[in-house]
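User: Sequence recovery, please. Input:
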C-alpha cells in the first residue's frame, strides 16, 4: 500500500493528478473547481452526479475525465426502454457447450458514463445500486467483482422533466457528490469558440495517466490523517441536517463517510497528508445537498437544500486553527485543533 513516507512520493502522486487535471481543463473551459471536484470524487472512490441544463458540457466532462485515464470506459444512454440486463449483463444459452454463458453488461468497466440517468425506469436505475455500493454485480446467484478503479459518472437535466423518473433517495445517496457546471463566463465562452469551433476537443485527447496510477493515488488517499476534531466537525454538520426545521429528510451516515473520504482526497490534491476543516467546509454543499429533502413549507418559501447547508455551515462551530507538532507517526506534521466559533463563508 502506498504511504506518505516522504514528501517526494507525495510530489510524484500530485504530479499525476495535475496531468489529468490539465487534460480535462483543456476540454472544459473556465471551470477549474468543477474539474477539481471530479478528481476528488475519483480519488475518494465515489461516484459523481452532474446535474445542469442542456448544452453546458455535462457529458463532455464525463468523457474528458474518462479519456484522460488509460482504463476501460463504457457509456450508457439511459432511455425508457433500457433494461436492467443491458447494464449488468445476461446469461445466454450456449448450444455448443450446452450451458449458460454470462455476457457482461456495460457496468463492467472502470469508468461508466450514464447519460441522462433519470430517463430510465426505476427498475433499470436500481440495477446500479449494488455495483455503486459494493462494487460487484450478482447475476443468477453468481457474484462478479468489478474492476478497480471503478466510478460511475451520471448526468441528468433539471429541466425537460416530461417522461423522466426522478432518482429515488437510495440512488442519490450512493452518489458521493453532485456538481452543476453552470454557464461559462463570456471570456471562457469566447475562448471555447476559438479553440473548439471547428474541431471536437475530445478527438485529440490522449490518456495522461494509467489505471494502476489511479489505484496508487486511491491507496495514498486512504492514508491521509484526519484528526478527531475534524471528524467530529463532519459528524456535527451531518447531524444538523437531521434536525433542521426546513428538512424532512437529513443526510445519512453514508453521507458522513463520503464527506470524510472526500475531505481526505481534497487534502491529497492540495499536497497535504492531513485533512483540515476547510476541506470539509469546501465539500459540504456538493456532498450533502443532493441527499436532502426540503419540507413543503421550505419549498413554498423557495428554500433550497444548498441554502440550508450553507446556513448549517455558518452555525456549526469550526475547530480552531491548527498548531503543528512534529514526530507524529501518522501524517507528519499533522495538526491538532481547539474550538472556535462558526466561520462565515
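Assistant: Recovered sequence (345 residues):
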Amino acid at each position: 500500500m502506498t504511504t506518505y513516507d516522504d514528501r517526494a512520493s507525495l510530489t510524484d502522486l500530485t504530479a499525476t493528478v495535475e496531468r489529468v487535471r490539465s487534460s480535462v481543463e483543456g476540454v472544459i473551459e473556465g471551470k477549474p473547481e468543477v474539474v477539481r471536484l471530479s478528481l476528488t470524487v475519483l480519488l475518494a472512490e465515489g461516484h459523481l452526479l452532474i446535474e445542469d441544463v442542456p448544452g453546458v458540457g455535462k457529458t463532455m466532462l464525463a468523457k474528458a475525465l474518462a479519456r484522460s485515464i488509460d482504463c476501460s470506459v463504457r457509456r450508457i444512454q439511459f432511455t425508457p426502454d433500457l433494461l436492467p440486463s443491458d447494464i449488468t449483463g445476461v446469461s445466454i444459452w450456449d448450444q455448443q457447450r450446452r450451458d449458460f454463458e454470462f455476457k457482461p453488461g456495460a457496468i463492467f468497466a472502470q469508468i461508466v458514463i450514464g447519460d441522462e440517468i433519470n430517463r430510465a425506469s426505476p427498475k433499470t436505475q436500481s440495477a446500479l445500486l449494488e455495483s455503486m455500493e459494493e462494487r460487484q454485480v450478482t447475476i443468477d446467484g453468481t457474484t462478479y467483482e468489478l474492476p478497480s478503479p471503478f466510478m460511475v459518472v451520471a448526468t441528468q437535466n433539471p429541466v425537460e422533466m416530461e417522461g423522466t423518473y426522478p432518482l429515488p433517495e437510495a440512488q442519490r445517496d450512493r452518489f458521493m457528490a453532485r456538481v452543476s457546471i453552470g454557464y461559462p463566463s463570456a471570456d471562457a465562452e469566447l475562448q471555447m469558440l476559438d479553440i473548439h469551433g471547428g474541431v471536437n476537443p475530445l478527438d485529440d485527447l490522449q490518456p495522461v495517466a494509467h489505471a494502476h496510477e489511479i489505484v496508487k493515488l486511491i491507496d495514498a488517499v486512504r492514508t491521509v490523517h484526519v484528526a478527531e476534531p475534524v471528524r467530529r466537525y463532519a459528524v456535527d454538520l451531518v447531524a444538523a441536517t437531521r434536525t433542521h426545521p426546513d428538512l424532512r429528510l437529513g443526510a445519512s451516515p453514508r453521507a458522513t463517510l463520503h464527506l470524510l473520504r472526500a475531505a481526505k482526497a481534497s487534502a491529497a490534491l492540495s499536497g497535504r497528508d492531513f485533512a483540515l476543516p476547510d476541506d470539509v467546509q469546501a465539500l459540504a454543499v456538493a456532498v450533502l445537498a443532493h441527499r436532502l429533502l426540503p419540507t413543503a413549507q421550505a419549498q413554498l418559501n423557495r428554500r433550497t437544500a444548498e441554502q440550508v447547508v450553507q446556513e448549517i455551515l455558518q452555525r456549526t462551530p469550526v475547530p480552531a486553527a491548527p498548531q503543528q507538532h512534529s514526530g507524529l507517526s501518522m501524517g507528519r506534521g499533522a495538526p491538532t485543533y481547539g474550538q472556535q466559533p462558526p466561520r462565515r463563508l
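DSSP finds 14 helices and 17 strands in the chain.
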